[in-house]
Amino acid sequence: MRTPLKIVLVGMPGSGKSTFGKKLAQQLKFVFVDLDQVIEKETGKSIGKIFEEEGEGKFRDLESFYLEKSLGRIGGFILATGGGTPCFNDNMDLINRESVSIFLDVSLSELYLRLHKGQLGKRPLFAGLDEGEIILKLKNLQSERESYYRQAKIMLSGDDISTEHLISEIMTYFRN
User: What CATH number has the domain bearing residue 167?
Assistant: First the structure.
């Protein structure tokens, strides 16, 4: 009996994990799971509210708990993690043990553009920061997190990663 395919997308905030995860799931006819949405649904609080009321440490514990629970789901799926998920509580080891991990590696300038166009207010790590502070925060986060992201089984780099490219890389991974 074949094990259902579980794909987990990792990368910086704004790298496209949720966007590409949804598209990939649609094309592969998989279920799409967004870890942040799971946490919000299960706790009844927004990510920002958890950070504000309980701190980042408590959030990271919740994130690890719901990551493990999500990876235990029956059947195949695409899971988009939060940007920090792989970097805490041995989560990257768990991700690699239970799934095919894919690192979406996007340039800092593109990350800033995507975040600026998106909803920065929904991202607690960037709340209240001006443009210069956001860029500095992105550089620092990338420096801190890159070693975790690079443990992924598949790495896709570039500012114009397509769903077709993701599928091609997944197929290549399984052929090898």
Answer: 3.40.50.300
Number of domains observed in the structure of the chain: 1
From residue 96, how far is each of 58, 73, 116, 119 by CA, in Å? Answer: 23, 15, 31, 30
Q: If the chain, 176 residues long, is cut into consecutive pieces of 10 residues, what is the mean pLDDT of each piece?
A: 81 92 90 96 94 93 97 92 96 97 93 76 75 89 96 89 81 78
How much is the pTM? 0.91
- Other beta carbons within 10 angstroms of residue 41's beta carbon come to 11
The residue count of the chain comes to 176
Boundaries of domain holding 158: 6-175
Residue spans of beta strands (DSSP E) within 107-171: 154-157
